[in-house]
Every structure is written in structure tokens, then in C-alpha cells.
Amino acid sequence: MDKTHIYQVKSFNYLGTIVNGNNTLVEEIRERIAKGNKAFYANKAHFKSNLVSRKSKLKLYWSVIRPVVEYGCETWVLKESSIQKLSVFERKILRKIFGPTKEANSIWRIKTNKELDELIKHWNIINDVKVVLVWTHK
After folding, report:
1. How many domains does the chain have?
2. Calpha distance 26→29 (Å, rounded)
3. Which of 17, 45, 51, 108 pairs as cysteine with 100 (C-beta 3.0–4.6 A)?
4. Residues 70, 32: Cα–Cα separation, whole Å
5. pTM of the predicted protein model
6. For 63, which DSSP code?
7. What domain range includes position 80?
């Protein structure tokens, strides 16, 4: 008779998604944001270039970086802490795309969260995830 050892783990990666015994998404969201950061820095030259238009940079963000972050979001239950982390990640990238604002007194400042939200016509990452959740649970 062969003795087989079965090891218990706290979490494991299954098809690119982190599964854990607590059924929490903290580790999964952190991993998704880290992969989104890797995708952003892999394309950093395009985001920094003055030759690439803002429209093209937004398309790059929406077609390359955002899907990396949203992968597996059909199973997510968004809590306020997860919403906050995803929003901070997105605003960081949007500030790189849109750059600072020059005030009337020639002082530069970063764009506010409200300004960024208006620039993307309120189609932020949280709204996108919520739409996916609604469509998958119909």
C-alpha cells in the first residue's frame, strides 16, 4: 500500500486566479493590480511619449491594462476596500495619461479625481466590473 501525503495550503493559483480557504479577495485584487502595474510599465514608453495621442493611450489602457486587472472579476464581491484599491490604481494611470493641469496663475497641479472621472465619461474600472457582474449573474 502506497502512502500518499496530501498537503493543505492556505491559497493556490488556479487558472490565473488565487483561491484561498477564507474566500477573500484581498490577495486576488492585490495580485491583479500588481499584474496591471507590470503591464503598464511594460508599455511605459508609449505612455510617456509625446508622439502618442491621449486617445491612443486611453485605448492602450482600456485594451491592454484594464483587462489584465479585471481578469476573473466575474467571481468578485466588491467591498469598499477593494473598490478603493482598484480606483487608486486606475487614477494613477489616468494621471500619467492626461498629465497635470496648468492654472491661470501658471502653476501646475495634478488633476482631481472628479476631473479624471469626467475625462473618461464616468466609465471607470468599478463601473466596468459592476457591468460584468450584472451580465454574468443574469
Report:
1. 1
2. 5
3. 108
4. 7
5. 0.83
6. I
7. 25-136
